[in-house]
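Before any further analysis, backbone shapes were mapped to integers, which produced the following:

***
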Amino acid sequence: MIKALAVLILAAAAAGAFFWFHQTSQAAPVPLVQVQGSSFDVATKPAVVPPPPAVPEVKPEPKPEPKPVVVIPPEVKPEPKPTPPQVPEVKIAPVDEKPMTLTFSRLAFRYWPQTKDKGARDPFPKEIKALNGKKIVMDGFMFPIDFEKGKVRSFILSNGMFGCCFGDAPAITETIKVYRADGKLMPYQSMARVTGTLEVGEEYDGDGYVDSVYRIKAEDVGAAQIEHK
């Protein structure tokens, strides 16, 4: 009786399994488990294990690219150059040129007029030509040329008197034309002492004749000191 019941159950189970297999051909085979306390295996569905919860993928944060480090060198200021000590300017007092005492004998020579050609020989000796532009002091006789308001504008300074009859006229190298550099009038002096700048060279008049070979631009005109021996 028990065996027959077991066979019946087994047949029913086989038929059910065949029917279930055809219905779920795509399903996975159901494993057979052994029922405790029975002598046959009973088909049971395996326990469904739930899948583990999906863990969100954690993407690593991109590391920031390192910025290039710009090294700025410290500004190097040039050292100031040492200032040289200031030397006080020493102003040299102008040295007044002491006038040279000159006599007519120093200026005497045999003058012979030359033509005005460029190739003409200079009639003045070198030692006399070297006196041109020198500051001098000379004494002589005053012979006025131009008068104005009782005073003298220009005169001839001579080594001797212009004589008459028995007196010879002084040579042209023994006369000097004198006029003030500033144009001022001069008092008349029979014997005059003249201080000024000497000019050496021929000066011509309006007709082309030699008017003078010496001239003085006077700075001071006074009375000459006559020494009595």
